[in-house]
Amino acid sequence: MTTPPAPHTHRRMAESFGVDAERYDRARPPYPVAMIERIVAAAPGPRVLDVGCGTGIEARQFRDAGCVVLGVEPDSRMAEFARGTGIEVEVGTFEAWDAGGRVFDAIVSGTAWHWVDPVAGAVKAAQVLRPGGVLAPFGHVYQLPPALTEALAAAFRRAAPDSPLTLTPDRPMLDAYGALYTRAADAIRETGGFTAPEIRRYDWHRTYTRPELLDMLPTTGGLSTLPPDTVTEILTTLDTTLTDTPLTIPYATWALTTTRL
Question: Mean of the pLDDT values across residues 66-90?
């Protein structure tokens, strides 16, 4: 059986979300307040490094919680948007980024740590965290209703038959996403520089109107790499399966926390 490539090797997808940074920031939801508060309380100070900060969604949440946030983002389009919201951002991948001797009280990463080499990322985190500092990657995943998932998968197959990506309607996404954090925890243990990682799951819901849902879907990795006309074709097909009744979507936010020894 062939092992699929690790997510961090898909650089084209990892750096595709800036194709429409404004939409990404508008459509992607913020993170659970309880999780943000828990990370802030665990950190020994206010200096936070946000790895793969994107448009600054979680960075602004930590800033509003009293932290001093620096973002690192490989996509210059996303970085520019984040700067426009008041977040300081340096462009580059975390693995190659030069901390210049700076140290931080916490390293966070919102739905982005899977784009970082898990072992190299953990080693780098140990280098730039002060002793007692917190490493806390976390991420959202949502589960569309079965009929809508099947319609999206069928539209994707018709519009992009040559795409190497596949959508699997019967996959329980809320549970499956936890595997990313299990792998991250294994890599962190390899470094020997952290306490035993703890993984938590926060379950919640978000209600979408028809336009809001169609606005959010193109921000996902499966669609963000496609040509605009292909995305439009998929969304037009999907629109025919939706009604004007708001749709409540279950989300899970998986979060890993560990402390620098």
Answer: 97
